[in-house]
From TrEMBL:
Protein name per UniProt: Negative regulator of flagellin synthesis
Keyword rRNA processing attributed: no
Residue numbers spanned by region Disordered: 1-35
Domain Anti-sigma-28 factor FlgM C-terminal: 33-81
Length: 87
């Protein structure tokens, strides 16, 4: 009979038992992940509400332009352009 000293499963059963116990202890001590959403991120989520309101306004403006009900105040446009380019 040939005795192979390598990969013998019956060698040192205490060591295997100890490794199992250590692994179980590590599993028990493992800390779970925790996620917190910052206030800035919460504000960004509220931004979707603002986007929806803005989109509703854009849709209303499109309807007004297509129907011919949208009137442009040329004086106000000129004032705003002047403010924009002159600071």
């Amino acid at each position: 009979m040939k005795i192979n000293p390598f990969n013998n499963p019956n060698i040192n059963p205490y060591n295997r038992q100890q490794k199992k116990a250590e692994l179980a202890e590590q599993q028990k001590n493992r800390v779970s992940d925790k996620v917190e959403i910052s206030s800035a991120a919460k504000e960004m989520q509220d931004g979707s509400r603002i986007q929806m309101e803005r989109q509703a306004r854009i849709d209303q403006l499109k309807v007004d332009v297509e129907s011919g009900n949208y009137k442009v105040d040329s004086k106000k446009v000129a004032e705003d352009l002047f403010k924009h380019y002159r600071g």
